[in-house]
Amino acid sequence: MENSSLIRNIYLLRHTDPQNYRSNMQARCCIGGCTDVSLSNHGQIQAQKLKEYFDNKAIDLIYSSPMKRCIETAKIIANQKKRIVLTEQLREINMGAWEGLTFEEIRDQYQKVYDARGKDILNIAPPGGESFVDCAARVNRAFKSILENSHGNIIIISHAGANRTILSKLSETPLSDLLKIPQEYGCINHLYQDQNGKILVKALNSTCL
Fold first, then answer.
1. Exposed, middle or buried, 119 (CB in 10 Å: 0-12/13-18/19+)?
2. Which residues contact 167 (CB under 8 A, 6 or more apart)?
């Protein structure tokens, strides 16, 4: 039985499997906010399963990062029946000069910054990139704005790093532990908002895939 204080559901999703991840990107730095790739065939299948999952749920709006992998996930789920709102601030963390490099290449080319970030991953940013502290501030501002400017049940489609900053704050998990929060491709983090406006995590990293 649903909690009587529930006023709406919020589904925070990670985009489904992107192109080339399993082969070319497997040993590389995370695909960040500047690397714009489409979904793989497997990712399209995953998104179709998400569509089926949400078909019988009342969804008012879908918010999406403007990256291709999120937009394509959103369009498949929406199936031309739900409005999609692109939200720039839901982008993944910007890895700057490190995007697309192997970790060996990063160590060779940026040894000093690499070592410093290893000691302080929250505050040290890759050259030309973004720190996790800055990413968390940006993404959580966007999340707050979405909640304040929407009504009813919504879907938010973003990225692993971005989602983790939201979930870290909601669960009062130290930001330093955010990489311990699991976020599989196509996962659903089911949140709900109670009558007092509090956002609670009902299910984490669940999958219908």
1. exposed
2. 12, 173, 178, 181, 189, 201, 204
What does pLDDT average to over the chain?
A: 90
Which one-letter amino acid corresponds to residue 24? N
Domain, as residue range, for 147: 6-206
Q: Are 23 and 84 in contact (CB under 8 A)?
A: no
Tell me the sheet residues that pair with 203.
190
5-32 per-position pLDDT tens digit: 668 999 999 999 998 754 444 455 556 6
Query: Residue 13: inside a domain, yes or no?
Result: yes
State the first-to-last Cα distance of the chain, in angstroms, to the nearest integer.
25
Give the pLDDT of residue 1: 39
Q: CB-based burial of residue 115 (10 Å sphere; 0-12 exposed, 13-18 middle, 19+ buried)?
A: exposed
Whichever domain contains 18, its CATH number is 3.40.50.1240
Containing H/E element for 190? strand 188-194
> What is the total count of domains within the chain?
1
Angle at 21 between CA 123 and CA 185, to 5 degrees: 75
> What number of other Cβ atoms are within 10 A of residue 80's Cβ?
6
